[in-house]
Amino acid sequence: MSLEEGNTPLIKTSTFGGNFLAKFEGANPTGSFKDRGMSVAVSNASNLGYRAVMAASTGNTAASAAAYAARAGMRSFIILPKGKIALGKLAQSVLYGAEVIEVEGNFDEGLEAVLNVHKTNGTVYPLNSFNPWRLEGQKTLAFEVVESVGVPDTVVVPVGNAGNIYAIWKGFVELTQVGLTERVPRMIGVQAEGASPIARAVLEGREIPEFTESPETIASAIRIGKPVNWPRAMRAIRESNGTAVVVTDEEILLAQTEMARREGLGVEPASAATLAGYVKLLKLGVVSKEELVVGVFTGHSLKDPDSMMRAGTRRFLVPPSEVLKLVEGELRV
Ligand code: F0G
User: Fold this and answer.
1) GO molecular function, one example (predicted)?
2) Can you give the CATH number for the domain in which 39 is found?
């Protein structure tokens, strides 16, 4: 089951003061990295004869699951925290014809509901990232990076439910195991301040994260308090000699506009966390200007129109006859 996902652009940036490449996952068919994993997982569901799939989601998993299920001729049940999903993502699930189940609760509670259905009713295939096929698909990002630029020194990834950072690390590790490469990059996870159990555990040197009952951040994709894949993410960070960084919502929003206005790249807030993290790591001296860093930009800006509008810009309302005067006036400023 494919929509020709993957092979996303790796774009050189020039304005952030270091050697920083952006892997633009927004170029995937539904606008996020989730398509890599959905292709594999929905193919598996189809091979096993399932007729329906389900996923809890902060929006992107939902949109991707709905699209691939549609392509496979399956029904999709999408569990969303009510009122906490960016408009573009909700609209995608609607367009692809998912059955949208909104719950009064957060993502973590939605995921528990999926696990409950999975344990009691075996006829609906679960597509959340505890499903290992998802991660097998997502690891292909590492292969593409190596094909384009070799093994980078460092990879920066936004962390929510924590599957992706592990999947990408696994991809790099497997290349070393077959002798195609000789080392694995440092994996650095970025979390938003109000939803940062893994980053805090890493930075404070604790083995087990302290989970958050009510996670809060503008980056709704990574508004997750109890990441299901935390042991895997912490292993990827530890074994790659990596680390983590916490960014504020203000830093995320600033990074989103800077990415758009300096580099012409539109990303959603959870992805902007990658840039906010990189800028902070440079400032802290955790990352040097010389080292080759790949930042994973997980989702397209169109996913979250509200966040784009927040950026604000110079806007005017004039009759058509006044446009010339206005432009000439502006050019003088
Ligand atoms: N960036 C975006 C745009 C995401 O949608 C997600 C996760 C992440 C980063 C974090 O990835 O969970 O593997 O650590 N979104 C999930 C969803 C939770 O439901 O769409 P992760």
Assistant:
1) L-serine ammonia-lyase activity
2) 3.40.50.1100
Tokens of 283: 């400032």
Phi, psi (degrees; rounded to nearest 5) at 299: -150, 155
* pLDDT band at residue 127 using 50, 70 and 90 as cut-offs: very high
Domain limit, last residue, from 100, 131, 162 = 131
Tokens of 50: 């399932």
Residue where a domain stops, chosen among 131, 159, 182: 131
Q: Are 278 and 271 in contact (CB under 8 A)?
A: no
Q: Flag whether 277 is marked binding.
A: no
Which of 28, 169, 298 is the pocket-test mutation for ligand 1 (most atoms within 8 Å of CB)?
298
Considering only CA atoms, which residue is closest to atom 15 of ligand 1? Answer: 221
pLDDT tens per residue across span 18-56: 999 999 999 999 999 999 999 999 999 999 999 999 999
Same domain, 258 and 149: yes
Asked if 252 contacts 190 with a C-beta cutoff of 8 angstroms, the reply is no
Query: If you search the block for the tokens 């957060």, which residue do you land on?
Result: 106
Gap from CA of 59 to ligand 1 centroid (Å): 8
List of residues 6+ apart from 61 with CB closer than 8 A: 34, 38, 55, 127, 128, 129
What's the domain count of the chain?
A: 2
**86 and 107 fall within a common domain:** yes
Distance CA 99, CA 257 (A): 34
Same domain, 107 and 154: no
Domain that holds residue 93: 34-131
pLDDT in tens, 260-302: 999 999 999 999 999 999 999 999 999 999 999 999 999 999 9
Q: Determine the distance separating the centroid of ligand 1 and the alpha carbon of 46, expressed in angstroms.
A: 24
Looking from the CA of residue 166, the nearest atom of ligand 1 is 13
Packing angle, helices 163-177 and 230-239, rounded to 10: 50
**Ligand 1 center to residue 219 CA distance, Å?**
10
Whether 46 is in a domain gets the answer: yes
